[in-house]
């Protein structure tokens, strides 16, 4: 039936921030201008490319591992900052828990960022047999320190762990990206029981700040080198790491029964990345902030040929999809999953079962305040995306490399006009099939259209608005909590301070 039997399919899910910050125009699948990565280790060897996968910005980890929209589990408001005593609710089972039930050995490597104030939030208590990496949102690439300010106070701590032990001092001076690759390679070479499948969740931090890259002297000079140059070097280092992992899989004859998924968590930033011609950046609900490419490499029983698809997929869909590909029955999964099983889409290029997608929802005083939803080709955005975040970004490096790719147009100079609904809320309605750049808000100038067009647009608007109201009923109160001084570095290093 095209499926791998239980006990034979290895899974490596790589969820870096590299394609995140590169964005769409920076991805080698979408642009003439390419970053100077020496091998393009995944893109040149992948069997399938999924071009329309939607992530959830900083909430993507919660969606990826839980199979749920973040707003249904209270993880939709902000990141798990240091000193904040909360995490992904412990009563929510994760993909790792269910793969363990199928006999998988499970390993988390890299960025966690789903809670760490007590051990119950950490990976080895969330279905992973081992953890090697850091708990917070980012660390220095050589010293593995986390510097941050909260409520005017500065904090500093070393954040690098093996399971529940902080080992930051032991790896000081070694580059984070290469450390993570070494750990995965070690797992591959030490996987002696070929009858027991493995699942490795590898979350690179590159090229999230701080901008630090390996060079002849161990570190690029951030003063003489632009942030873009450092950014490119960090991606190059990540690509080298991925190449080494792929080489290890080949050396151990594991590629024939291992599925490698290389995906991302959000679009590029306005400086180092480039999402053009898509609108918006990381932190917005526009396509440029949410749409990311994904690459797959796997056995011929799953990926029979090379192909590219625009099948609609949300990052939460990976939970049921990977579980199904691993031999599990989606009937055994929780009923409250919002993710869809796209295994048939991947294996047989069948149409995606997902037709509707919620980007995010925010409520204020029990009322819907902002959000975005898509139904087939139609997309409705409720609320503005913040000052200076409603435009198109075309960065200078891309202009210099290929001016024709990023010729300034009215999209770069003019913001789409907001319109006011009955509740004095700003709405934008787009036809993504004809207008993927979200430059034509169909609600603007509606009175100038003929009666038939007005009726069709208003009907679509009312339908999507109603669907957002429906999903509002699924919103759980945010689990985010106020800062606790007990979480200072000394307590943090010990865990168990909340």
Short descriptors:
eleven-stranded mixed sheet; 19% strand; 498 residues; disordered N terminus; 12 helices; five-stranded antiparallel sheet; globular; alpha/beta
Q: What are the SSEs and their pairings?
A:
Elements lengths: L9 E5 L3 H5 L25 E7 L5 H7 L28 H7 L3 E7 L18 E5 L10 E6 L2 E6 L2 E2 L2 E2 L9 H14 L8 E6 L23 H25 L6 E5 L24 H4 E7 L9 E3 L3 E2 L3 H8 L17 H6 L7 E9 L2 E9 L2 E5 L13 H6 L8 H4 L5 E2 L5 E6 L19 H22 L16 H4 L6
Parallel strand pairs: 1-9, 1-10, 2-12, 2-13, 3-4, 3-9
Antiparallel strand pairs: 2-11, 4-7, 5-6, 7-8, 10-11, 14-15, 15-16, 16-18, 17-18
Helix pairs in contact: 4-5
Please tell me about this protein's structure.
With 498 residues, this protein is an alpha/beta fold. It is 22% helix and 19% strand. The protein contains twelve helices and 18 strands. The strands form three sheets. Strands 1, 2, 3, 4, 7, 8, 9, 10, 11, 12 and 13 form an eleven-stranded mixed β-sheet that branches. Strands 14-15-16-18-17 form a five-stranded antiparallel β-sheet, with helices on one face. It has a two-stranded antiparallel ribbon with strand order 5-6. Strand 5 (145-150) and strand 6 form a beta hairpin. The longest helix has 25 residues, at 227-251. The radius of gyration is 22 Å and the shape is globular. The model is unreliable at 1-8, 17-38, 216-224 and 396-424 (pLDDT under 50).
